[in-house]
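Colleagues,

For the teaching module next term, I've prepared a clean inverse folding example: a structure given as tokens, and then the sequence designed for it. I'd like students to try predicting residues themselves before seeing the answer, so please don't circulate the second half yet.
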């Protein structure tokens, strides 16, 4: 099916975003970096991603998905090659991470809209589930493979990136055969009727829903899993083979996100509520691990925070597609993902707060914030708006 090629292309780009995650420990050992610098390197991705999101989505609404997504995929391979060539040069690592963010901002916003439009005949929510599965699956595979190679293979800061470059090449080969889903208008002409490019981004009266529901749910998408994937491993000493353990931790967290996204069909309007409740439990488990160093708590937090993030992603993409005007889907998807990537600041904030004491406290504060959001979502779910 056509949508499957789009899903694989999205998956291939997503697989590269977390290849550096388990390798942070390699860079830490080689360069003697502090936890704050490591989490800043991880989060610098968002500095390139957020502006790219705001540009790419609306641009693809006008120029078409193909003209924006395909060059973005090419840049995904370039970003991985840049990481492979960076070696131990910290400035180049930051530059490569920034480029990786730009690439993701382009491909995720446009690719998610593309998948949604190729899935219109499959019913409400299918496009959101498929896009969430593609991204979460890629997020899971990348760190699992790079953690394994980073621990045991030669050239640990080169080989994982080269393998991702090959994966992107395969995805690009499939993507070039995808049909355009945007009804393009010749230059100088304007669309009329519903869904014109100048149509409002959302319908009248939906602004409060976007501000108090869609935006905070979006932040949870990555604030949940990145806390356990990035912050905890650099704040608490892990067992031997730390690079492998971090890769497995990231793969397990984001793998749970992938599997959980598929539950949206059964949970329906309660998907975001369940996701935030799992986030509360996950932060609590992560806090228990930092206080006791008990690995079962770490495993529990990985599964809970990963699942919570996956459910929030599926719920958010579905709500985004429902609220957007037909030809503003790319723009609203970009806004949703921009809010989601604000969550990438969570590890840095946790590491910064931990300098004043234990990482347990900021994790418990995060749990309280997630609990407040869950309370806010309950009446919205009851009303059928989710």
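(Answer key — instructors only)
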């Amino acid at each position: 099916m056509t949508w499957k090629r789009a899903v694989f292309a999205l998956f291939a780009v997503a697989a590269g975003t977390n290849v550096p995650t388990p390798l942070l420990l390699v860079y830490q050992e080689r360069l003697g970096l502090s936890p704050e610098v490591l989490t800043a390197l991880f989060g610098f991705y968002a500095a390139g991603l957020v502006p790219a999101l705001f540009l790419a989505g609306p641009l693809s609404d006008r120029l078409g998905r193909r003209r924006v997504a395909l060059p973005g995929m090419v840049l995904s391979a370039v970003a991985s090659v840049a990481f492979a060539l960076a070696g131990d040069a910290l400035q180049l690592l930051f530059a490569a991470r920034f480029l990786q963010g730009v690439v993701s901002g382009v491909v995720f916003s446009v690719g998610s809209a593309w998948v949604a439009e190729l899935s219109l005949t499959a019913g409400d929510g299918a496009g959101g589930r498929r896009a969430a599965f593609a991204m979460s699956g890629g997020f899971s595979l990348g760190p699992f493979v790079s953690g394994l190679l980073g621990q045991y293979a030669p050239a640990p800061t080169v080989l994982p990136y080269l393998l991702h470059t090959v994966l992107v090449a395969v995805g690009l080969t499939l993507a070039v055969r995808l049909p355009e889903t945007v009804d393009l208008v010749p230059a100088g002409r304007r669309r009329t009727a519903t869904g014109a490019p100048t149509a409002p981004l959302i319908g009248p009266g939906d602004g409060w829903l976007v501000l108090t529901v869609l935006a905070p749910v979006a932040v949870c998408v990555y604030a949940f899993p990145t806390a356990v994937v990035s912050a905890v491993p650099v704040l608490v000493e892990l067992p031997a083979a730390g690079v492998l353990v971090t890769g497995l931790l990231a793969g397990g967290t984001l793998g749970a996100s992938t599997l959980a996204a598929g539950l949206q069909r059964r949970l329906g309007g309660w998907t975001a509520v369940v996701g935030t409740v799992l986030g509360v439990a996950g932060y609590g488990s992560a806090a228990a691990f930092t206080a006791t160093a008990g690995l079962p708590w770490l495993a529990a937090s990985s599964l809970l925070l990963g699942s919570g993030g996956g459910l929030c992603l599926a719920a958010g993409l579905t709500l985004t597609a429902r609220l957007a005007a037909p030809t503003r889907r790319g723009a609203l998807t970009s806004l949703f993902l921009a809010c989601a990537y604000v969550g990438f600041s969570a590890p840095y904030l946790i590491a910064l707060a931990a300098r004043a004491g234990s990482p347990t406290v900021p994790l418990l504060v995060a749990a309280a914030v997630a609990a407040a959001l869950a309370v806010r979502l309950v009446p919205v779910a009851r009303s059928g708006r989710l």
